[in-house]
């Protein structure tokens, strides 16, 4: 089999060898569309950066760590699975490897940080599932451990770089779609207050309804199909429902047959049952996280932390 080189990748992507090198070593200088094309070529050809040579040159392990989330109901867990897949792809292109770990709760995760930093020559972390009062970021920052987060700090100072999806924009788009199709009684099925993501998703719906001068009616449930169905039964006046997750949307579909339903996350289940849902740009978010962490590790990061808020998209199917 012919050896795959930077030149091979350059031909496949239709760019110069220098552009391929820039995507691997200094991705921020390459236009996003070109960067994505080169990454696709690298992945399809199976090109691998010479890891040993890079470690000798940089003095770093090129090893990153990220947590695997609990399986939960098997529906919403697939969202972070897709993010991890995208992160692993982006890390490979940049010459890094990704170590996965599990942990229960913030304290358990911080204890795992200590173990991993002691046992492995880690370069940095990518954190997911940020939340109010999150102690993980301050623990890493106090010890000068490089990290970025997929998710905003939710109320804490923006002292580190992060990438997030504009959750409010997603539910606002869903609500506008329902308004455009003639619905004026649009309910919301979300999570208990206090979840940064859940609160943002509710706000997108509520603000759009307020702009239209329409009343709001909402209920909350612990995420899951059964609890979503039980809560949705109380939305007796709604002709349409915007939901904070696809799990809740499936419950609403069961409890409110014939109503227009929109979910969030565009999971495989949503596609299978024809559920209209808000899709997150997870591969792009993962690639941006990798870019920001690579900048930080290479000493190329700007003085002010970078905050990227990516727009989601509404995928319209038969339920709305």
TrEMBL record:
One Pfam family from the record: Peripla_BP_3
Full protein name: LacI family DNA-binding transcriptional regulator
GO MF annotations in UniProt: DNA binding
PROSITE patterns for the chain: HTH_LACI_2
Domain of life of the native organism: Bacteria
Database matches in InterPro entries: HTH_LacI, LacI/GalR-like_sensor, Lambda_DNA-bd_dom_sf, Peripla_BP_I
Keywords: DNA-binding, Transcription, Transcription regulation
Annotated SUPFAM superfamilies: lambda repressor-like DNA-binding domains, Periplasmic binding protein-like I
Location of the HTH lacI-type domain: 4-58
CDD domains membership: HTH_LacI
């Amino acid at each position: 089999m012919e050896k795959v080189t930077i030149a091979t990748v350059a031909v496949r992507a239709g760019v110069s060898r220098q552009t391929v090198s820039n995507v691997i070593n200094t991705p921020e200088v390459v236009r996003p569309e070109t960067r994505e094309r080169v990454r696709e070529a690298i992945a399809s050809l199976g090109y691998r950066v010479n890891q040993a040579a890079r470690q000798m040159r940089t003095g770093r392990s090129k090893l990153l760590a990220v947590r695997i989330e609990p399986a939960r109901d098997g529906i919403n867990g697939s969202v972070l699975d897709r993010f991890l897949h995208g992160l692993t792809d982006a890390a490979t292109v940049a010459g890094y490897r990704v170590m996965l770990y599990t942990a229960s709760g913030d304290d358990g995760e911080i204890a795992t940080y200590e173990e991993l930093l002691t046992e492995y020559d880690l370069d940095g972390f990518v954190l997911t599932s940020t939340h109010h009062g999150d102690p993980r970021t301050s623990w890493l920052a106090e010890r000068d451990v490089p990290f970025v987060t997929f998710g905003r700090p939710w109320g804490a100072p923006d002292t580190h770089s992060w990438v997030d999806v504009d959750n409010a924009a997603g539910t606002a788009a869903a609500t506008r779609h329902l308004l455009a199709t003639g619905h004026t009684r649009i309910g919301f099925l979300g999570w208990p207050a206090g979840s940064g993501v859940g609160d943002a998703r509710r706000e997108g719906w509520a603000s759009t309804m307020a702009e239209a001068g329409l009343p709001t009616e909402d209920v909350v449930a612990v995420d899951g199909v059964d609890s979503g169905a039980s809560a949705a039964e109380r939305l007796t006046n709604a002709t349409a429902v915007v939901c904070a997750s696809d799990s809740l949307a499936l419950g609403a579909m069961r409890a409110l047959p014939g109503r227009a339903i929109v979910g969030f996350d565009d999971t495989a289940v949503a596609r299978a049952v024809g559920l209209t849902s808000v899709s997150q740009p997870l591969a792009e978010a993962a690639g941006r996280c990798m870019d920001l962490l690579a900048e930080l590790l290479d000493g190329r990061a700007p003085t002010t932390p970078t905050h990227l808020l990516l727009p989601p998209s509404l995928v319209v199917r038969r339920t709305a």
